[in-house]
Backbone:
């Protein structure tokens, strides 16, 4: 009963939010995705942690829902009031140029803009929202089955970039694809990592025995899950439903140095719906985080981009309503 009540509350909240913020919809005849658009004044997300581009708040395929709101209270300035596959860029665990910036000076959050380091700050506050000094120049180009997001930013101190992200649905397939290009248009090297915080809620299911996360290798947890989750071979499972306030989290090891290990599958075994996450770059690090509402693999990749050069990466989300894994997409 509690599960159903929360599902109804989340659905009504999403309905109330829809239309309040700038949005767009894409459709390929099989899958429909609805996205919030970046907007400095009216955007659904105006925090400084995650990339503003391509915020999916609904993803439907064959009457199954793969993305829904997973948190209780929405405020555009809250660092994780965001849904779908979202990305955070980090340099040594902080924003680009943070270590060199003095209090009162600026640094960069890639995908967000130039932000200010407040007076008296001695340590980066990853989960706080900083003052945005310059959001850069943004353009959004919409098509029936894709949306292109572009951000150009000159952040000062030699840092500048051109960032392009395309969210598209593959023709004739139940696939959502994220294509990225980050070009260094400044004088300083761009050294950063990026990870996807995969906020998938499949058919309202809470995290428990019906949720299984599959890996292509045998993962090993660095931190004890303390009985909240268990690794069995290549699967991460739950013996019971997580309760509010419980968190099962750990860094995971066991992957190799090729892109074939960037391949995860989150399945709701009650409804047989699943999403498979396949990247085209090797993993640099892998974090797993789950609470009652959601189970998230967080795969990291790393990049060093010299001035004038660019770095590209692609992530494919394969949706399925059958219990067998979908085939790996062609490179």
Residues:
């Amino acid at each position: 009963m509690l599960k159903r009540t929360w599902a109804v509350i989340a659905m009504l909240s999403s309905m109330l939010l829809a239309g309040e913020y700038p949005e767009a919809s894409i459709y390929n005849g099989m899958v429909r995705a609805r996205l919030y658009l970046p907007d400095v004044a009216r955007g659904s997300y105006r925090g400084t942690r995650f990339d503003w581009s391509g915020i999916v708040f609904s993803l439907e395929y064959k009457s199954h829902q793969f993305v829904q709101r997973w948190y209780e209270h929405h405020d555009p300035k809250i660092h994780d009031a965001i849904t779908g596959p979202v990305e955070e860029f980090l340099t040594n665990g902080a924003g680009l140029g943070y270590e060199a910036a003095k209090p009162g000076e600026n640094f960069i959050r890639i995908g967000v803009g130039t932000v200010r380091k407040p007076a008296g700050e001695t340590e980066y506050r990853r989960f706080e929202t900083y003052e945005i000094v310059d959001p850069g120049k943004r353009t959004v180009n919409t098509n029936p089955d894709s949306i292109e997001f572009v951000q150009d930013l000159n952040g000062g101190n030699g840092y500048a970039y051109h960032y392009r992200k395309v969210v598209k649905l593959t023709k004739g397939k139940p696939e959502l694809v994220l294509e990225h290009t980050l070009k260094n248009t400044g004088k300083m090297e761009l050294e950063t990592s990026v990870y996807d915080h995969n906020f998938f809620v499949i058919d309202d299911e809470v995290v428990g025995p019906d949720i299984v996360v599959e890996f292509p290798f045998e993962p090993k947890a660095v931190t004890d899950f303390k009985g909240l989750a268990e690794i069995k071979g290549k699967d991460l499972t739950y013996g019971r439903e997580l309760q509010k306030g419980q968190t099962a989290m750990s860094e995971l090891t066991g992957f190799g140095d090729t892109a074939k290990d960037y391949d995860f599958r989150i399945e709701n075994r009650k409804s047989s719906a699943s999403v498979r996450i396949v990247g085209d770059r090797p993993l640099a690090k892998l974090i797993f985080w789950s609470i009652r509402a959601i189970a998230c693999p967080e795969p990291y990749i790393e990049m060093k981009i010299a001035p004038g050069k660019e770095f590209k990466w692609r992530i494919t989300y394969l949706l399925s309503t059958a219990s067998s894994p979908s085939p790996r997409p062609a490179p």
